[in-house]
Description:
The complex is a heterodimer of chains A (336) and B (359).
Chain A: H1 2-29, H2 37-41, H3 43-72, H4 92-99, H5 110-144, H6 147-158, H7 165-176, H8 181-188, H9 203-212, H10 214-226, H11 230-238, H12 243-271, H13 275-280, H14 288-297, H15 302-326
Helix pairs in contact in A: 1-3, 3-15, 4-15, 5-9, 5-10, 5-12, 7-9, 10-12, 11-12, 12-15, 14-15
Chain B: E1 5-14, E2 17-27, E3 32-36, H1 43-51, E4 58-63, E5 66-67, E6 78-81, H2 93-103, H3 108-121, H4 137-150, E7 155-159, H5 167-184, E8 187-192, H6 195-201, E9 204-209, E10 212-217, H7 219-224, H8 229-234, E11 239-249, E12 252-257, E13 260-265, E14 275-280, E15 286-287, E16 296-305, E17 309-316, E18 321-327, E19 340-344, E20 351-354
Parallel strand pairs in B: 3-8, 3-9, 6-7, 7-8
Antiparallel strand pairs in B: 1-2, 1-4, 4-5, 9-10, 11-12, 11-14, 12-13, 14-20, 15-19, 16-17, 16-19, 17-18
Helix pairs in contact in B: 2-3, 2-4, 3-4
Keywords (chain A): Cell membrane, Membrane, Transmembrane, Transmembrane helix, Transport
Domain ABC transmembrane type-1 (chain A): 116-323
Family (chain A): Belongs to the binding-protein-dependent transport system permease family. CysTW subfamily.
Amino acid sequence: xxxxxxxxxxxxxxxxxxxxxxxxxxxxxxxxxxxxxxxxxxxxxxxxxxxxxxxxxxxxxxxxxxxxxxxxxxxxxxxxxxxxxxxxxxxxxxxxxxxxxxxxxxxxxxxxxxxxxxxxxxxxxxxxxxxxxxxxxxxxxxxxxxxxxxxxxxxxxxxxxxxxxxxxxxxxxxxxxxxxxxxxxxxxxxxxxxxxxxxxxxxxxxxxxxxxxxxxxxxxxxxxxxxxxxxxxxxxxxxxxxxxxxxxxxxxxxxxxxxxxxxxxxxxxxxxxxxxxxxxxxxxxxxxxxxxxxxxxxxxxxxxxxxxxxxxxxxxxxxxxxxxxxxxxxxxxxxx
Amino acid sequence: xxxxxxxxxxxxxxxxxxxxxxxxxxxxxxxxxxxxxxxxxxxxxxxxxxxxxxxxxxxxxxxxxxxxxxxxxxxxxxxxxxxxxxxxxxxxxxxxxxxxxxxxxxxxxxxxxxxxxxxxxxxxxxxxxxxxxxxxxxxxxxxxxxxxxxxxxxxxxxxxxxxxxxxxxxxxxxxxxxxxxxxxxxxxxxxxxxxxxxxxxxxxxxxxxxxxxxxxxxxxxxxxxxxxxxxxxxxxxxxxxxxxxxxxxxxxxxxxxxxxxxxxxxxxxxxxxxxxxxxxxxxxxxxxxxxxxxxxxxxxxxxxxxxxxxxxxxxxxxxxxxxxxxxxxxxxxxxxxxxxxxxxxxxxxxxxxxxxxxx
Lengths: 336, 359
């Protein structure tokens, strides 16, 4: 126990010492322009910033993730045996994802592997749908809307997100159920005799997921397009470009960092979404996040859940990095 | 041959604001034509109307004899050079110049050939592969010109393209623009608030004020023969003296002013009794012998010696300031501030124009 206590207090201290050393190094080599970090902010505020950022980075971000990674490589054991001789690092949780068994590699765990690829695939589709919905709107907001119109649009975009995610998911469910308003209207107008099984066909799931992270797409896009000089659009038009050419060769290349940032956010969040798949997923659709959830709370197998979550996280990161690379964007650029 | 650009009764209004009022104008093919006026006078609006970004509220724009109503900027035989140039930063210099051709579906080899020629024409042959951001201000300017010329417009529209450059480069680009225009032989329509630019480059100038084209003519005409008080005071330095016409004598007239009885040419045929403004340029002012009654007296406020010419600002009896630019021969010694000088002018060097109602 004393070991972990030393860790808890020693780590921030180490961070502070590290920053002091860095500041001293900067001063000596003259890398820093202007005053040093502590000269600029004062010792008290400087120390607070370093400590707060250090605490945040280590305890809120890094440490929990490291704990999960660590856990994912350990076997499931009753609390009494934790830290005992049986608590050894193992790949059995990852093996279970692939083969459905902690020991045998005879058969593939198709159920989970399929759910995994479905999640990735559908997340890509949802991201594309989101982009298709948001790009025209963002372009309008950024380039042609008046200030008053822009305010109204922003309000209309933000207000619906005051409704929380679970409530929204259930509202979709009610709306799309076989006795729901949409089916009643369809049947009332004579378009169909039988209610359409929207939920079974995953229409609800796609709607819910598309809707949930719309803002994450629209704001990066809006920011990126807003910084485009209107004269460039006009210059292209004046040189004879039709509208689609202007979008493809002037607006989109300029907005590339914003598109990447929006798509990354939406893809990551969609792949990791839990509420919408739980509430709106059809009976035949197994999404990956509910499986992870089940590992933790149904199977009470936290190491396995951690391994599953980690698989999803790493795959998503790799996928995003590959896509960024393909579009020749560096990670730094998407923050612009 | 049809006129390059014709404006017929063109009005542009934005809500209640009249940006351009009854513009009637014919611009000939191959002409270097300038719109000169202060900012907000409607010259940019008029340019955007010609290029197709704004539809006139009333009236007709014809280019090469064809009515342009409903024809968008991408379908007009015009090319516009923007004030900030609006080069595409994500493209190379060559891609910028070739953009208009690419849009038109010109095959690659043909496009490359043409871009190469244009790069040579604007002396950027070595810079085709560079990013726009790597170029200097003057080079960017030339890329913008080449990009516009690439689509072979019959009219090139330029919206104060030199305003962002420093003085030296601006003066150099003036002669370069003029040379390019002579070489390609197409109509240039140039927008500027800088009379020096308008006077040195243009074949003809339209002086605009508050949405109205006040006068159209060559540089000499708008400088030496202004037809409205605005043109007289906007183009070049001018002294104006208020008065009332007392007599007419052929092309001349005399008027009664607070500074005494003065005379000038009367090109707009003002009648006796009419309120008038007398315009006298500083450079036509002459010293008069003290003690005589010719001209009027003033106290020298500021004396700026420039070698060949000395600029003297005088305060006359009415408190008004009058400027006189006196040649080196006219002055035996430099006047000292506070000294009283008597100055006058020859009547044929002064100009009488009607005084506008609201002044």
